[in-house]
Each structure stands twice: as C-alpha cells, then as structure tokens.
C-alpha cells in the first residue's frame, strides 16, 4: 500500500537539488511515494515514476530503490504517455533520472521527440515493439556492464532502425546525470571564483 503526492519531503527536494534536477521538471514527470515500513513502523518517502502499466519505480534520497510491477514508460513530445510513435526519432534511457537530466541539460519542459524509459535494462525486450516504430533510436545508456549489454542487445536485434549510441557524450562520467552535475558545477565555478577574488581584494584594501 502506498500514497502518491507532489514532491514535498525536504530530503527528496534536497536530493533533486544535489542531482541538479529542477523541481518543475521533477514534479511534472515524477512524484512523491509514501510507503509504510512495517519493520521500522514509520512512513518512508521516495521519489516515484510511473510505467505505462501503472507500475511504479521508486528511489529514496539515500539511494534505496524498489519497484512495483514496473514496465517501460513511453512519452510524447507533449510530455504525455503514449503507445504509438508521434515522431521518427526516439530517445532511450535506462532510468527516469537520466530522462529528467536530459530535459535539464537541454532546458526543456517537454521532450523534443518521443522518449522511452526502460526503468531498468532488464526491460529492454518490452520496449522493442515501440522502438521498431521509429527510424532513429538515440541511446543514453549507463556506462556500466548492464548498459553495455543493453546497447549490444539493441545493436543485434533492432534491425531496420538507425541506432545511435550517445554514451560518448558523457564519456568519463557514469551516466547522463553525472554529466549534468559536472556541467552545472563548471557553470557555477567562475562565479564562486569571482566572489572569492572580490572578497580577497576587499580584505587586502582593509
């Protein structure tokens, strides 16, 4: 038994801030899940994301993950769930945090093409029917063993589509969210450096 609501728990908000995910994007596509923990005898708050079959994948601010009957999630350019293609291009992610990171990196409220979130690389077979409807498949998979195996499966079995591996975009990072954090850190670094220099200059004058 669980309860869903807009994201209000402070630990979840701080977690999203630490991952550089804007709240307006997080609240549009994800939500807060409250699950009663019988062992601890208290409610635990998670960040949740729906799959097409109304299953839920959830993640705590401390990295604890779980799922309830979760399948794939497919989304249109309007940001709504879909079963059929609405664009010749589809972008593929292994998890919803990478999808949210993609929107944040491109400063978008809605995708600029069709999207499929596998909610775990083990769900790749469930997504093949939707993927085959498209001409181009752009893959943003994690750079771990599961991501590599998933990419290999797509390359070998998704015939008739042009598959583009985008993992080179975040080479040296773990995934798309790691790239987002790196970029946001680099963007704020000159500002912090400038403030420090101004502060030192003022101190020297004194």
Q: Can you lay out the helices and strands and say which pair or pack?
A:
Layout: E1 2-5, H1 10-18, H2 23-29, E2 31-37, E3 42-50, E4 56-59, E5 65-68, E6 73-75, E7 89-93, H3 96-105, E8 114-117, H4 128-131, E9 136-140, H5 145-157, E10 162-165, H6 176-205
Parallel strand pairs: 7-8, 7-9, 9-10
Antiparallel strand pairs: 1-2, 2-3, 3-4, 4-5, 6-8
Describe it for me?
This protein is 35% helix and 24% strand. By secondary structure, the protein is of the alpha/beta class. It has a 5-stranded antiparallel sheet with strand order 1-2-3-4-5. The chain has a 5-stranded mixed sheet with strand order 6-8-7-9-10. The radius of gyration is 19 Å and the shape is globular.
* Spatial shape: globular
What is the CA-atom radius of gyration, in angstroms?
A: 19 Å
Give the strand tally.
Answer: 10
Helical fraction: 25-40%
Rounded mean pLDDT score: 89
β-strand amount: 15-25%
Main sheet: strand order: 1-2-3-4-5
Number of helices: 6
* Low-confidence residue ranges: 202-206
Q: Structural class given helices, strands, pairing?
A: alpha/beta
Q: Give the H and E element order.
A: EHHEEEEEEHEHEHEH
Largest sheet: 5 strands, antiparallel
N-to-C span: 63 Å
